[in-house]
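Appendix B, example 12.
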Amino acid sequence: MVSSPKTNQKLPIICEVYQKVDEDGNSKFKAMSRKGIYAAISYMFCAVLLIMFNKAALSSYKFPYVNVITLLQLICSCIFLYIMRQWNIISFTKDVSLRTVDNPIILVPFNTLVQTLPLALSYLLFMLVSMESVRGISVPMYTTLRRTTVAFTMVVEYLVSRQKHSLLVVGSVGIIILGAFVAGARDLSFDFYSYGVVLLSNLCTAIYLTSIARLGKSSGLNSFGLMWCNGIICGPILLLSTFLQGDLQKLISFPHLSSPGFQAVMLLSCVMAFFLNYTVFWNTALNSALTQTICGNLKDVFTIGLGWLLFGGLPFDLFNILGQGIGFLGSCFYAYCKLKGK
């Protein structure tokens, strides 16, 4: 079914990027619009809730099958997108006035699907590593280490597009990293594997966001179209992987499978994953990838508070509080430098 050009979309699909690049390759930004504020707040809200639900499933209920959670999230996402696409609530293209030749099975041209293959694979890697990184580390320390993602993003951007940043921006990133190390100085529960997985998750995040910036512009698809391609490409791969590993068979014997609380957590995790994916694309397209990174740092404040309240973790000590404060100030300074074009 092809959407009519006159169809009014009920969900926001914004493709304008509020970013300018000068002759030296430095980014400058306009003031954030009201819609941009809504997008940023929506992303932070969904991200905090998703981390809490994933943590509850993996830690509180001791659910050991990370791939199954990711697979269920992809399946739910594809179901939501398919229904909304068939009901003409959404379109998969940036320009809703363009009529695309839909494949009756994949709903997008096959060439377009192939073009988004690198983005889909980077998304799958990002999702799997991110889920695993939550398991063996406290929520406060997880969010602290995740703040170093901005450094990974800067490196990947330079390697891919040779984008350079000012000394002030580099200095603000250094402050964020310093805060992360200070906060972790008293972490007696240091786990090399868990910390390594979180840092690998940071690298996957940088690759994923860079892929959005590069392939999202050339594919002709909007946020929903990219999410759909991610799902139909990654879904079969992940399904085969979970089957070969025996996770689907072992899932039947999971002791909390019939628990209403566990089922509610899993359902909410799938719903939040869908909205998080959408708000990532929406916030990135409307406000720029930089604002998306800044929002990722700012939402950590709420994640830390809820993590300590619901799951516990690191004790309140001087080093941890000082490190959290340094990292937050570094994030604010980073936002100030970029928003002012410095």
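The mean pLDDT is 75. Residues 34-339 form one domain.
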